[in-house]
Fold this sequence. Notes:
By secondary structure, the chain is of the alpha/beta class. The chain contains eight helices and 15 strands. It has an eight-stranded mixed beta sheet. It starts with 26 loop residues before the first strand and ends in a 5-residue tail after the last helix.
Amino acid sequence: MRVPDSPDALRLTVADLLKDEARGLRLSLLSPEVPLEREISNYRIQKHGLIFAGFDQFFEPERMQLMGVAEVAYLATLTPERRLEVVAQLCVLQPICIIVTRACEPPAELLHKCTECEIPLLQSQLSVSAFFDAVNRYFEDFINPETTIHGVLLDIHSTGVLLIGKSGVGKSEVALDLLQRGHRLIADDVVVMRFRPPATVVGESNAILKFHMEIRGLGIINIEDIFGITAVRESQRVDLVIELIAWDEYDGSKRLNLEPENFPVLGVNIPKATIPVNPGRNLVTIVEVAAHTFRLQEQGKNTSSALLDDLARRLNPDSD
């Protein structure tokens, strides 16, 4: 899990918005002379056009301020003197930064005032709505905890299945067979797990190992090159964990699976199934059935419990 070693470990500044990790925001700097070390402490965005009318009652300077096409068009209707007065009203409040969306060119008066007041002025290629979505995802990735797990994450009929187990138990081989059946790979070996509110864990591949898989005897293979783009996906919610174990390690007392197992990840309990590995067992089909069974259980259908209930009624017909 990402845990800060110091108070600055999770410190986010305006400069961070221009780094590769934030390239999805498609930002560029319009005021290069301005320092960019202002700390972003509020992860909400504000689009406050009313400030140009002199109404600043609900203005929150610690938020990033967005300007869209409408605000830029409004400023263009003003005389240069009035435009300078209006942007001065905004800059005197010292917002953390100002972002102009849809690649709009801000008026020269705004750039001048931002430089004078040392307020970072940035430009995004995205529309206001697209920027809202992108920056919220960026903040979620930055704030929320993450961890890595050794395993293979697959999309099996829209169910995120994480295969875990000791090295050499056959996780990658099972995954390879599943890919041949049309299922999709998210990550092999190193699965990056991220928490998503309110209680979801999403897995994705390590950036270096993305869409690669190690098969003993073959070495490293690229799944996207072999099976095509439809055999991979960027991320997937983790719905089910399947642990592959040696046959002699399996606890036979749990054969009916009446007591559900859970696998805790980042404070979220994910349903877990344990499958013993033995030569001759068709693990691929078993894993597929496990994914289907999980979906049925989500709908309240538990075959083992239903069978035992029916058996109890037959053995004790007078108990009803």
